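LAB NOTEBOOK - FOLDING QUEUE
OPERATOR: T.R.
BATCH SIZE: 2
PURPOSE: Compare the predicted structure-token outputs for two unrelated chains run back to back under identical settings.
PRIORITY: normal
REVIEWER: second-year student, initials M.K.

ITEM 1
FIELD SEQUENCE / FIELD STRUCTURE:
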Amino acid sequence: MSINENMIVIYVPESLVPGLRELTGPVLFDMDKLRVDSGFALAPDEFVTSLRMLAEAELMSGYQKNSIAIIPEGLNTLTE
């Protein structure tokens, strides 16, 4: 990979993700203005998506065993 002036460097404390230097695969980081607050490595059978996209994939595939209900933001189902 060549150095590009549009690239940024993000420092990740090794203590956040055990074995980080040896990892090969996806790692998820929670960041606040380029500061890594937390993170973890995803297991081989894990992936990241939104509930909306998961529900759409289920619908498109015809699989709806565990149907997902998406609650609109701001709706409190306990009081409404």
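ITEM 2
FIELD SEQUENCE / FIELD STRUCTURE:
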Amino acid sequence: MKFGFSRSLILGLSFLASAPFAATQGTLGSTSSGTFGVAANRPATPRQVQVLNLSDVSFTNSDHPDADNQGSEIGESMRFCLVDTYAGQVRLTVSTGNNLLSYTWWQLGTTDGVLVNYAVTVGLPGQATPIAASRNANATSSSLTTFAAVADRSSCGSGNLVAHVYVQSAMPNTLPARTYTDTITVLATPI
């Protein structure tokens, strides 16, 4: 037994699958009206955010942040990127990993307990006063203001935000010659 479909039936089915509406045309007369459908499709993917281009920062007593700096503080700057698939506003929360703090400063530490006060700020490249992330009294995390994100990673360029990491003052020569460390977490939340 041989089965077959007519060409007009197949074309009709493919048209129905691709168009939920069928516009109608008006007729010639003293008045005329026609109709057309309108459909707005919400993307199937949910809103997503991503923090990109983070890199470890390392500095010595003679390093100063770049032109997006905190003045003459000792530290380093790093550009990074904030992506939001809806290109909207995103809130950043910055947290210290070692939970060492001294009122308004977080603390870099060594394995034998020697500490150095430091701070983190985040802002736009060239922003005169970035937002301090570590100056909430005795808090191990700080929720920052909202930042505009780019829609996809290809728009990041050299980074749409700058993080500055700097010590409270020049590291005293009396400090033991060691490496003082912490791990910072940057959490992006769409709003």
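REVIEWER COMMENT (ITEM 2): The longest strand covers residues 75-84.
FOLLOW-UP: none requested
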